[in-house]
Amino acid sequence: MTLFATGFAGATNVAIGSGGTVFVAELYANQVSSVSRRGVVTPLVSLNQPAGLEWSHGKLYVSTDVFGDGKIVSLRVR
């Protein structure tokens, strides 16, 4: 096992994007962060209660408001 990145507030899911970028849903921080191949963590977008992630065809799909009415949003990420 190799430690890749730290400092997440309630990481609930990850998705791997093109180029090896890792996206992390942070439930307690209300955000999705990206992690570069070098392990640099950058907040990507603020969302209410993000939980699930999926990468498909250049878009990141995120489940949000998981303790409420629940939504799925899509983000185009470059």
Question: What's the short story on this structure?
Answer:
With about 80 residues, this protein is an all-beta fold. The chain has strands spanning about 10-15, 20-25, 30-35, 40-45, 55, 60-65, 70-75.
Give a structural overview.
It is a single chain. The chain is mainly β and 78 residues long. 0% of the residues lie in helices and 49% in strands. The chain has no helices and seven strands. It has strands spanning 11-16, 22-26, 31-35, 41-46, 53-56, 59-64, 71-76. The strands form two sheets. A four-stranded antiparallel β-sheet has the order 1-2-3-4, with no helix packed on it. The mean pLDDT is 95.
Layout of helices and strands:
Layout: E1 11-16, E2 22-26, E3 31-35, E4 41-46, E5 53-56, E6 59-64, E7 71-76
Antiparallel strand pairs: 1-2, 2-3, 3-4, 5-6, 6-7
Proportion of residues in helical segments? under 10%
% residues in beta strands: over 45%
According to DSSP, the number of beta strands is 7
Mean pLDDT: 95
Compute the CA-based radius of gyration.
Answer: 12 Å
Category by helix and strand content: mainly beta
Walk across the major sheet and give the strand order: 1-2-3-4
The tally of helices reads: 0
Shape category: globular
The rounded distance between the terminal residues' Cα atoms is: 29 Å
